[in-house]
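Look over what follows to help learners.
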Amino acid sequence: MKNLEPIHLTNAQRAQVLTQALPYIQKYYGKIVVVKYGGNAMINEQLKAQVMEDIVLLHLIGVKVVLVHGGGPEITETLKKIGKESVFCEGLRVTDKETAEVVQMVLAGKINKSLVNMLEINGGKSIGISGLDGHMIKAEMKDERLGYVGRITEVDITPVTDLLEKGYIPVISTIGCDDEGNVYNINADTAASFIAGGIKAERLITMTDIEGILRDKNDHSSIIPCIDLKMAEELFKSEVISGGMIPKVECCIDAIHKGVKKVTILDGRVPHALLIETLTDEGAGTMVVADMNEDDEL
């Protein structure tokens, strides 16, 4: 875990930081940035508080932030408390009717409202919704072996745009439903990709518990700062992108195809990584774009 001790800056250093942020504030003012936050990146409470502070800061300087969250570890913990074992198949949680009820309770209830509360106490205007509200996320059964794990069939982004127009930070829990009222557990990366594409977001930032794409998985300094779709294809073939990174990068590519300009896989364990990525020259994590040769901002 990274050091979470505060960094002490001189007044001159503070001024330099603010000056460096100015062009980025101008660039993202009035633009939509979708932040996917969840899983193991949410476990540390101090880091979670810092992420919420960062989101409020972006909101207050005019960035339209949409927060999409998961919460797998808390779902596992809650199932354990009721004596139910978590079973996974190909990396996805097998979800029977009882598990689907727990997923709904934990995601749309406990986690969603906790994040809303943290944003509010830091000065943000926030409203929490789930994919069930307005039947925003329509889904169908992905695989009978997985039970009520959903494949998204349709996303109605109207509830999101309505909240953004009224000046709120939408906080979205990733559960879906079908026309019969069945509730589905939806992968948060996939949901964030659909939502970001639906609202034509400027950026999708997916916060996780890894540094980004590593050229050598055993060398944490071998992070690849930026890839485009052609390079991603090569990295898949060479198995540089493998294992659990495959679905994450596939969601990034899907978002690009859906119209999102840039997608970043960001290490949510780094203090204020969100601000470093959006408001500084340094950046963080791995950015995915359509074509690096055509992107004059890289």
Summary: The mean pLDDT is 88.
